[in-house]
Every structure is written in structure tokens, then in C-alpha cells.
Here is the input.
Amino acid sequence: MEAAGTTRAEWRVTGMDCGSCAAKVQGAVERLPGVSQVEVALMAERLRLVLARDGTTPDEVERAVRAVGFGISAPEAPAERVAGRFVLPGEAVAPAAAPAAPAEEKRATLPGWARSRKAQMVAATGGLLALAWGIALTVGGPAAEAGFVLATLAGVAPVARRALAMARARMPFTIEMLMTIAALGALAIGAQGEAAVVVFLFALGELLEGLAAGRARDGIRALAALKPATARLVVGPRIREVAAESLAPGHVLQIRPGDRVAADGVVISGRSGVDQSAVTGESMPVAKGPGDEVLAGSVNADAELRLRVLRAAGESAIDRILRLVEEAESARAPVERFIDRFSRWYMPAVVGTAALVAVLPPLLLGAGWEVWIYRALALLLIGCPCALVISVPAAVASALSAGARQGLLMKGGAVLEAAAGTELVAFDKTGTLTAGRPQVTALEPFGTDGKTLLRMAAAVEQGASHPLGRAILEEAEAAGLALPQAAEAGATPGRGAHALVEGLRWTVGSPRLAMEAGCLGEAAATRAAALETEGSTVVAVFAPDRLLGLIALRDEPRADAAAAIAELKRMGVRTVMLTGDNLRTGRAMAERLGLPCRAGLLPGEKVAQMQALAAQSRVLMVGDGINDAPALAAAQVGIAMGSGTDVALETADGALLRDRVADVPALLRLSRATMAVIRQNVALALGLKAVFLATTVAGMTGLWIAVLADTGATVLVTANALRLLRARPGGD
Here is the structure.
């Protein structure tokens, strides 16, 4: 929340290709009066900050960013929409966007990179260099030297302008400044031809960096493209094509076969297979009928569906996934924060070393000034940390995008790094290892009949959200029972629910709770123990003075749970099940799945268990994201099941959108692969720097090789990171 007298502002910044670029944007605006909380997201191309009311204006922020060579614009505002109600016939509905004009289409025939300023600079410097070489080969002499000088000055002029702008912003140690010094220094010592080549290679390298960074952003852009721009809105007897941003809860949409769904909705008519692979990674179409929810970005495969919109524009599952991926840069990995700190003193150290290389050999050893100044200039170019700084965010962005496409959501590089080191996975039982859809398997009345037992239990559980309560209600509905009114309803987390029904305070809770109330006799306790030994969860229905009976419910394990736990063991990761069920029920389920069990845990006890485990091992906790929130928070990494629900995305460090236990080892594989790529990138960046530093000081390589060492390393580490975009950790 912003302080009084301040406002939060956001812009889209273009032209950022590496971590150094993001640092330049941040440095340019941080110095402005009244600016605070500056956040620059490289892959999301986003600038956020807080402005004091009497300080810098938004226009001044934009001028500061443009001064250091980057494009900036306000983010597009969402289309105006009619919210919270139906659009009736005759009311205004936002029309679909008009198609692009032919002239606009013609201008857009060139790819984006070819129309960029960097491409124009490469063409200009390359043309001047070719002209200079032509003069050198045909005329030679002073005319050729003048041609190289002209090519160098024309190419270095915009670089020098950016260097001076950043120096005024108190950022003297930039690649632009180093490039300017190197090019002008080469001219000063008579290396005109090499200076022109260096300027051209620098421009070419910047273009390649931009292409690589744009490719890294394609994963995020692909997510944004999943939602169609228009939707077919049912308005009375008519169907209108409207802008997707105008949709609001309650609208009814027609989804034809082959159409992509524009908003989260619930099917009100029709049955069809729906391809959700783009959103959840589910490989096969899922059958949908009345009452089933369909996510935005899914594709209708077979027959027409009518959907009632559930969430407003900007709040669908795909929108929330997109926001999570874009904002994940703020949760940076510890290794990334270390590299940022390292780069702050790395470049000044390189500049100091280059200065010593330029002056010490001539002064102390009588060596030639031109030779050592030349080597010092090459050393300046080698010293740029662009490759090192981009090595981590490029890998993280690629991994997050690849994971999101397969239903694996993680909130940033810090989560990826922590998950990669997981030694123990702790699973909740109900809704995690099991499907969370228990069914009533036995009614054991005491002093009454089964219908009365079920009727009273269902009356207490009216409005219940817990899976056991819902199962009791479904059983009562299937039996056609009329439920009495309940009042003063309440619940004791992890133990049971209670309500005032027909003048008595009835409780539906664990046998242990009934025993503590003095209502569970020996015969009932024996029967409850027998049912639990069979793997059922047992609840007792009782009033303060008597036991009405027992209800047994069973929740089957997910089809992939046992295989996933076996896969984790093969990966060297230990597992444990934490459950609020009694020991017999928990142990029966754990034995079926092949993992140890800690049972009978109340919510507070589950947190204590998690804290004890986390003190001994690096623990990843998997739960349903709602009642397991405290335990998820106590783990090093908390992962929620739940098809992208609000709670799952907000309370945990990540979510498994496909509700598959098999996605837990997939998430760990992706995290480990990401950390492996980061280690490769850091080794590649530093290794190339070390090799070319040594060869440059030894006089084996020159200026143009130094430029290739910098830009080439940046392109290599980015390309290596892009391999993660093709990662299929789930194997499907």
C-alpha cells in the first residue's frame, strides 16, 4: 500500500536485452526526486514505481528513460466493460476490434526486429564499413583512413550519447561508456580499421542480444495469446461478437466447435470434449457438460456449448497465471541476487585493471605505450558483465514459461532454486494424495435407523465446504431425504461441525471428539476402529447426551499417486504423508501408496510437524491450498493442488493446475534442470571472460575478438537458457 500523497505508476519499457539494461533503467529513474520503490522487470518489460505528489511527474520519468536509450509507454488500459450484470437486448456492448487496415498490414510485413533501431544501426554501420573497405582496396592511403574514421564516428555517436546520458544519471561504468572509450582510443592510436570493425560488431551484437531476449519473452507472450480477442455473446435471441474485455459475470457465451474460450465459465447447455492442454497441460480433451467449469484459453473440440461467465475480464485463470509468471521476476533467486551484487564491483574492478594494464608496463618495463593501451582497450570490452547478469533471469523466465504451459506454476526464481534442493516431500492426504471426493460406504446407527442418522448428519453439514461434509450431503440428496432447518452452525477446524437441529445441538465429528464428549461407548469404539482399519474415515453423529451413530467414508487415492511417490524415491527424494485422519486410516492409505504416515494431526499439530521436518531437511509441502495454508507456509516450498483457484495461487509458492501427484516430480525435475542451466551459464560467462582476458593481456587477441567475447557470451547463455522453453518435465 502506498503512503498518503503518493501514487503507484507503471510503464512498458522496450529495448531491454539484459540485466545491465534493466539496471540502467532503474538507475535513470531512482535519482529523480520523489521517486521510490522502483521495480524493473526485464522479461516482462515492466517499470513500476511510486511517485510523490509534489515530486517527479510521469512525463519526467518517461523523458529520463528515453534519455538513456529505451522506449517507454503506458500499459494499455482494459476495454470498458459492463460489470456484474447481464447485458440485455439493446444495451451497449463493446464491439469487437476492427480489422487492421490494408496499409497497416503492408507496413507490418517486415519482422519486428528488422524494423528496430538496432537493425537500422547495424545496416548503417555495416554500409559505412563496407564503403571504407572498398576505398581501402581501390584507393588506399589517407582516403581509406578517413573512411574508417567516418564509419567509426558515425557508429559510435549514438553509443556515446547514451553513455553520457547514463554518466549524468551517475552510472559511469556501462558497456556504452567502455565501447566509446575503446573506439575513440583505437582511433587515437591509429587503429582506425579495427575501430570501425569493433563498432560494427558491437551494433551486431546488440541486435543479436535483442533477438535472444525477445525469444525468451515469447513464452509469456504465448500465454497472453491464449485468450481470444473476441467472444460470441448471447443476447436474447441474438448472438453478437464482442470484445473479450467487455465480458462480465453472468454473460452467456456461445462456444462453437473449434472456438477458443474467452472467459472462465460454467456450462449451462451442451456436452463436448474440451482441449485444456494450453492452460493446464492436460494431454487429452476433457468431457464437459452442464455444471462443469471451463477455463479461458481452452478449445471446444466437438459440439456447441453455452457458458455462463464466472469471472470478470482480467480475473480468469489464464489472466492470473499470466500475472503470476510476469510478476515472478520480483521473487528473484538467491544466486541472481548474488550475481547482481557481484556485478556492482566487478565492472569498476575491470576498469581499474585496464588502467593499470595501460600504464604499468610502459612505466615500469619501458614497453610501448600503443601496444599496452590497445590491450587495455580490449580488456575494457571483455569486462562487460552482460552475459553474467542475463544468465539467471533468462533461465528463470524460460523455466517459468515452460512450467506454466504444463500446469506447473511457481512464484519466481527463489521458488525454483529452493525446489531444486528438495530432500523431502510432505503430502497432505485428502484432496492431495486422494481425489478429495470421498463417498459414504457404511451407516452404523445406534438406537435409530440409517435414514435418521444420515438425515441429522446432513442437516448439520448444510453449506459445508469440507469434502467429508459434501459427501454426506450428496448421499442424503441421493436418498431423497428432506433436511430439517439448522441454526447456530459452526465448526472446529480438523475435528468436526455442529449445529442446532430440532432443539438439540448435534455434532458431526471424529470418534475422538465423541469420546471426549463421553458419547462413544465401547461397542461403538470397537466398530469405529474396525472401519478405520479397513481404510475408511469415520465420523460420529452425537448430541450432548447420546450417540446417534457412525458414518464411514472412503476416499480413493489418485490414480497416479503411487507411481509419483515411487518416482520421487528414484530421484533420491524422501516422502511422508501428514493427515488429520486417525492412525489406522492414515496407515492403511500410506501402505497402499508406499510412504510413511503421521496421522491424527490437528492443523496446529501439522504445522509443528512441518517445522520439525524443515529443521532437519529441505522440505516441499503439497496440500490443497486452503486448509493446509499454515503448513504450506511453514515449509521451504509450499505447493497447492487445485486447478488454479484464487486461494491456491495466493497462499502457496506454486500450484499444480492439473491436480496430478505426478506433477510433483515433474516440478522438481524442471527446478533441477533450471539450476543446472544457471550453473552452466555462469561457468560459460566467467570462463569466456577469463580465457579472453588472458589472451588479450598476452597480446594473442585484439579488439574485435573482445567484442565477440562479450556479445557472443551473452547470446550463448541466452540460447542455452532458451532450451528450457522446450522442457517437458512431465513427459507428456
About this structure: The domain at 406-434+557-664 is CATH 3.40.50.1000 (Rossmann fold).
